[in-house]
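My hope is that you will study the protein record below before we discuss the fold together.
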Amino acid sequence: MKKLDAYILRKFIGTFIYAISLISVIIIIFDISEKIDAFIRWHLSLKTIVFDYYVNFVPYLVNLFSPLFTFIAVVFFTSRLAARSEIVAILSGGISFRRLMVPYMIGAAMIASLSLYLNHVIIPNANKTRLRFEDAYVRTQYYNLSVHIHKQISPGVFIYMHNYDITRNLGIKFALERIDKQEIRYKLMSETVMWDSLKKDWKIYNYFIRKIAKDGTETSSVGMEKDTVLGFYPSDFKEQLIDDEAMNYKELDQYIAQQRMEGSNNVKYYEVEKYRRTSFPFATFILTLIGVALSSRKVRGGTGLHLGVGLLIAFSFILFMQISTTFAESGYISPLISVWIPNFLYGILAFFMVRLAPK
């Protein structure tokens, strides 16, 4: 690595660390002001707040803003180099624009590698502790599922509830079906079903049970109340809105398979999260290329103009990514395509901007 490479790389990484540290401190200050009442109400010690929450919150923050602040760092220090005619001197010294991009790409690779590592290894484990803290002291952990709940609890076994009350572990208008080779072999219908926490089983009320043998003979029974094992638990009807943040890649993959088997409507949401963890860090390369191409020329308005135009492009990229993932979660496009299409389209934009920049 030449002195010029080390100089640009030092400027790049230094500006990025400064920018991401500054925004992290600002966000943490606002977060403390928002949660201070909960901290006081639960009489939490400073050690608990810092090590159980904020130490695990910082990696999440750094990774969340890393592509945007990579872009801001590139635009900021490159436009300063251009304003001081340093880039003109570099190019006049016989170094091509493509060669000038090398230290930028090394810096982008370092940041993207860190983001990939954080996404797949550090953040899921850190989020387990952070989310447990928030669930215990800051917010309500669970929410009720919507009405008309359909789930496959095991191969060939399906359940239905009109709605489920998590506060009483009570299901309304319950039905369970066992299907073998597309034929119903067992059906249970009940007005209500309630979990018995002492016996660890379910109580069904006002029930009707129908059994159909393979030879076609049927038996049925009715009753007012009965204890039974149904093959699922109350926790199956409690959903955490941000479970995916605390799952590593393997856990998320297994959870998606389970949700798909149960017929959940949330499968695409989790698939978007799975693919986003890999695609999002690669945005670092694209935004770096756009940032260099945009800010390497000395213009009137200097750094301010470059930052203004650069932020417009960066926020349009983030907005486009949000729109594409929303379409994927709604089922209109594939989750894999939705998370990569912003990188692809803005990658084309970066390619043409880098080609035009030396001219």
Remarks:
- The CA atoms of residues 21 and 167 lie 42 Å apart.
- Residues 3-139+267-356 form one domain.
- The chain has a mean pLDDT of 87.
- The beta strands are 143-144, 149-154, 157-165, 170-180, 183-196, 201-212, 218-228, 238-239.
